[in-house]
Amino acid sequence: MVCLNSILCLSDENECEGLDMNGKQRNGFCEQKCVNTIGSYYCDCEDDYKLDEDGRTCTIIACPEPEAVDKGRIWCSESNRIGSRCALRCFPGFYVAGKARITCLVTGSWDRDFGSCEGISCERIEIPHHGAMRCDMHFWFGSTCEFDCNEGFLLRGRGETSCGDGDWTSVIPWCEREICDDTFMTVTHAEVDCTDGNNFESVCNVTCNKGYKLAEVELYEFKTTLECQAGAIWDSPKPTCVKKRCQPSFEELVWRQRNGSIVCSEEDLLGSTCILLCDEGFEVRGEFRTQCVGDAKWSGSIGFCKRISCRRIEIPQYGSMRCDMQFRFGSTCEFACNEGFLLRGRGETRCETRRVWTAAIPSCEREICDDTFITVSNARVFCTDGNNFESVCVVTCNIGYKLAEVELDEFKTTLECQAGASWNTTKPTCVRKRCQPSIEKLVLSQPNRAIVCSEHDLLGSTCWVACDEGFNVRGEFRAQCVGDAKWSKSIRFCERISCERIEVPQHGSMQCDLPFWLGSTCLFLCNKGFILRGRGIVRCEADGDWTSAIPWCEREICDDTFMTVTNAKVNCTDGSKFESICDVTCNEGYQLAGFQENEFETTLECQAGATWNTEKATCIRKRCQPSFEQLVTRRPNGTISCSEEDLLGTTCLLLCDEGFEVRGEFRTQCVGDAKWSKSIGFCTSES
Q1: N or C: lower Cβ tally within 10 Å for the chain?
Q2: Count of CB atoms within 10 A of residue 357's CB?
Q3: Higher-confidence position of 196 and 268
Q4: Residues 563 and 570 sit within 8 Å (Cβ to Cβ)
């Protein structure tokens, strides 16, 4: 039953259900699916099928059969049904140009078209440079190419290759020039310049170095130009550069020399060195050596051999000479000296090959007399030529000296060095003179003394005066014989020994026996109140000094603590010394403390015995007035509290009883010269 609205309802039969006359499910006479609708129905198909034109039967959906591809074959997974995949494979020698795979869509059409099978070909090959190539099938798959090289070239690689699956079976070969022997490019003593090294057709020019030339061989002639030919051979044997010969030749050089010979390392070949060797008695003039250099030329003209001559010899001064052969090689010279002269060196010399004499040329020197004659003790010697022959020497004795064994006081003489190296007289001697007056006269001239001398009264002697006991030298006690035999000083007399005069010590007394002479004793005392500083007794000794320093008297010193009084100033006339007076003044607010009923004095004096005239002063604090007791009794109805009663520095407070209050100052302080800072008030009733 199907209701069209609330009023109209129709009955509806489901054509898709029910059985046919054979008892089978009717299914609306549809082959696959029956779909019921209001008042009707329709047929439908399963997936991958489509409804035929009769509206009841179904046909499977399929793509059209793929078209055949030339030179290829097609394979499909599920024929041409939906979802089937087909692949194209080309025959050998062909490849797929385009799509090789297609798929059947649900629409019954292929998603794309197959490509085509095209013939495979390899990369085009060029004919090798300097070679030839033969190929069949024009580079297609299976084609084969063969290679050859021209004469003089070698094939590098395989001579045949085939086209496989788009690639050649081997690397394409090439042609290389043949290589000749590379040792031809290196020629000793030459430069080789080639167009292309030692490769085929390369041309090399060989140029011998300076001083060298191509060697000459009987069988063939070396070429300066070589060419590398086919078969890797040069067109000529390897050339050789040999040394040139210098001109003039070795034989000519030898022939030109006289009085000598030439020796060469390699005759006249390049690099040879030749040396000229002269015969004995001859020497080289010019170059003794030359060398074959450059482009086979001698470095210089070699010299010649000339007879050797030694340098000319002059006749020695004060002598003579005899020579033969005029100073040439082998010449001999003999030498001699005049009387009074000696030959220094060899008396004969000979001229040798090195142009030198066998010995140094001798000289004639003056004979030498004994040199001790020109050194005389205590004298000056002046000579015209030292101690040489003919020298004259004047001997002058020093001041204070004279010639020995000569009468009077002569001090000068003359010597001469004669032939035979002897002086004309004996060696002079200078002896000391004696001072005047003599020692004997000096001793007799003064009493109370003795004279002691180092060398009596001879020059240089020192004399001392020795006084008797108790006496001392007055003036010089020592003199010396100096200069031209004179005493340096006058020796004085001996006087009695005495010590320095002593003064009586200040504030003391002194008692001495004898007037300060040797052995005198002095006693010292000090006045009352003074102390002796030093030894009280001194004695005059033999050296003219007192046995100790002279004493002095110092004031006694009282206790210095009296000079320092707390809360006071102390002024003293001489510190804490005897007779010093000290004034003691207490500071403001302080007073001298009393002893029993008496007060201390304000003046102190240091007395004899190092004692003060009284006890040490003491300053104590004063008390303010009115006193503490008076302040307390005068303030009824209250109390006064003080830190230190009425002493200097105390502070007092007024405290009123209950019901009373302070009228005036409630606090005061004892200050200054013991005075209250303020007048304290009173306690009055609060009403």
Answers
A1: C
A2: 20
A3: 196
A4: yes
pTM of the entire predicted model:
0.32
CA distances from 507 to 400, 531, 534, 553, 556 (A): 63, 9, 15, 6, 12
Which stretch, 245-259, 441-455, 482-496, has highest mean pLDDT? 245-259
Per-position DSSP letters for 308-342, written without gaps between them = -BPPP-PPPTTEEEEESGGGBTT-EEEEEE-TTEE
Q: What is the mean pLDDT of the chain?
A: 84
Say how far apart CA 416 and CA 420 lie, in whole Å: 12
Exposure string for 457-469, b = 16+ CB within 10 A, e = fewer: bbbebebebebee
Q: How many CA atoms lie within 13 Å of 299's alpha carbon, on the beta-carbon side?
A: 14
User: Can you tell me the mean pLDDT for 123-131?
Assistant: 89
Task: State how far the Cα of 355 lies from the Cα of 366, in Å rounded to an integer.
Answer: 31
pLDDT tens digits, residue range 547-569? 889 999 999 999 988 888 988 89
pLDDT for 64: 87
Return d(Cα 583, Cα 190) in angstroms, integer. Answer: 134
For residue 515, pLDDT beyond 90: no
Is the pLDDT at 174 greater than 90, yes or no? yes
Phi, psi dihedral angles at 433 (to 5 degrees): -80, 175
- Exposed e or buried b for every residue in 137-162, given b needs 16+ CB within 10 A? eeeebebebebebeebbeeeeeeebe
Q: Which residue has the tokens 């002046």?
A: 382
Residue type, 297: K
User: Which helix (H) or strand (E) segment is 360 a member of?
Assistant: none
The torsion of the CA quartet 438, 441, 445, 449, rounded to 10 degrees, works out to: 70
Which of the two residues, 180 and 542, has the higher pLDDT score?
A: 180
Distance CA 435, CA 621 (A): 95
* Token pair of 261 as six digits: 């010979």
Say if CB 601 and CB 582 are below 8 A apart: no
pLDDT over threshold 80, residue 316: yes
Residue with tokens 């499909």: 76
When computed from its CA atoms, the radius of gyration of the chain, rounded to whole angstroms, is 80
Q: What angle do CA 488, 493, 497 make, to 5 degrees?
A: 125
pLDDT of residue 219: 42
What integer pLDDT is reported at residue 601 of this predicted model?
56
Is 1:12 a contact under the CB 8 Å cutoff? yes
- Residue 159 DSSP code: S
**pLDDT, tens digit, 9 for 90 and up, residues 516-544:** 888 889 999 999 989 999 898 999 888 88
CA–CA gap between residue 381 and residue 371 (Å, rounded): 11
Q: What is residue 597's predicted lDDT score, i.e. its pLDDT?
A: 34
Residue at 5: amino acid letter: N
> Where does the pLDDT of residue 668 fall: very low under 50, low under 70, confident under 90, or very high at 90 and above?
very high
Q: How many angstroms separate the CA atoms of 575 and 557, rounded?
A: 9
- Full set of structural domains in the chain with CATH: 15-60 (2.10.25.10), 72-119 (2.10.70), 131-177 (2.10.70.10), 185-243 (2.10.70.10), 250-307 (2.10.70.10), 319-366 (2.10.70.10), 371-432 (2.10.70.10), 439-496 (2.10.70.10), 508-555 (2.10.70.10), 560-621 (2.10.70.10), 628-685 (2.10.70.10)
CB 224 within 8 A of CB 187: no
| Res. 652 pLDDT band, cuts 50 70 90 | very high
